[in-house]
Amino acid sequence: MSDSIIDLHSDDYFMGEALRQAAKAYEAGEVPVGAVIVREGRIIARASNQVELLKDATAHAEMLALTQAEQAVGDWRLTDCTLYVTKEPCPMCAGAIVHTRLARVVFGLGDPKGGAAGGALNLLQFPTLNHRCEITAGLRVDECRALIQSFFAEQRRAKKNNENPAAN
């Protein structure tokens, strides 16, 4: 009988780190999306959504993580890196992912209405763009979905209570 070894290079482990970042966003009142970028088996960037905090529509977890990773690598090209993100990237983030030439994107929850990694469209593998990323979808999807659903349920409850003060 052998003890199980935690594989620190596994997709599951790194998505767990992205989920921790998503939980931070949730606690801060942000849409709970978290991202980490991995290079050579090490996390070089961690971020969570900060749109409300920074009053910046571009402050998605992926965008912030890309900037950190570029600084860590010392180059805007991230050709040997993998992004782990709890929700499928939007078109803005997918465009930045293509431009930074990430090798791979791993995400949890798909977004059929606005996702750009196969949900509504697929910019990460768009045939006429100069780069295409490998995509792994649906990793730890139940955990990713639970965070998002819980967050938006709370938002709806809060809005309903503010509209109907007698309900408080």
Average the pLDDT over all residues and give the rounded result. Answer: 93
Work out the helix count: 5
Number of E strands:
5
User: Ends: how far apart?
Assistant: 56 Å
Give the structural class.
Answer: alpha/beta
- Ranges where pLDDT stays below 50 over 5 or more residues in a row are none
The SSE string, one letter per element, is HEEHHEHEEH
Shape: globular
Strand content: 15-25%
> How is the main sheet built?
5 strands, mixed
Q: How helix-rich are the residues, as a percent range? A: 25-40%
Strand order of the largest sheet: 2-1-3-4-5
> Whole-number radius of gyration?
17 Å
Structural description of this entry:
With 168 residues, this protein is an alpha/beta fold. It contains 5 helices and 5 strands. The protein has a 5-stranded mixed sheet with strand order 2-1-3-4-5. The longest helix is centred in the C-terminal third of the chain and has 23 residues, at 141-163. It is globular and about 55 Å long.
Please name the defining characteristics of this protein:
168 residues; alpha/beta; globular
Summarize the structure.
The protein has 168 residues and is an alpha/beta fold. It is built from 5 helices and 5 strands, in the order H-E-E-H-H-E-H-E-E-H. Helix 1 (11-27) runs parallel beside helix 5.
